[in-house]
Amino acid sequence: MSLSLGIFGWIIIGGLAGWIASKIKGTDEQQGLVLNVLVGVAGGLIGGFILNLFGVDVAGGGKIFSFLTCLLGSVILLTIVNKIRR
Fold it and tell me: 82: which residues sit within 8 A by CB, 6+ positions away?
């Protein structure tokens, strides 16, 4: 996720991505608003790192690409957390 979005952009995009990822993974009942934002922001970092490994320019992707990057990373993060909890 592009660091140029600013803190407000990170919160909005991260929150939406975290919430949708929690719906996809079935963990929405366990998470509140703050945890959704944290999962989304962490997911953005994870997704950006993974896409950079494949040579994808995540910095110039725009807001929609940043959202999709956050969503990808959030789903990966929640999958890992669910595996550890079991």
Answer: 25, 27
